[in-house]
Amino acid sequence: MCLYSKENKLKAADQDIVCYKLVDKMEGVGYKSPVMGFHIPQGVINGKLPYIAEQSSKDNENDYTCSIGNLFQFGPGLIHTFKHQPKEIRYYGEGSQVNAKLFECIIPKGTKYVEGVDTSMYESYASEKIFFKRKTKFEKEKHHKQPYSIDINDVEYK
To answer: I want to staple 80 with a disulfide (CB 3.0 to 4.6 A). Which of 1, 43, 45, 125 is the partner?
Structure first.
């Protein structure tokens, strides 16, 4: 999952930030991230250990992986979470709809993160670390209106 932001740098969280992480339950193995397939150890899922981002694959000195007009893309190397509790299961990869589990998490105070939208325009975060707090359910109501949206007219092409 990629995140797009008008910000080009990660910033340190000035307080704990509640977020939501979608994971896939793997039979007999535990959990994995639905897009990149990173294994999530049991000590992380039960909240005893932090989930720390894999080493970034970006090839420049910037926090973002690339820019598109006046938007910056944050891709591999950061943990992607939702800002609001999703209302439905969203398809991200093979088997995700069947085995998807949702966890309430915390981006701890002091952790570097950025806020933006994912490829489906849902408000999201990309951060260097999260703590899993508890398994939760998908909400049944209609989607939140997204106050952080990107209008195609905001994109500047050079």
So the answer is: 1
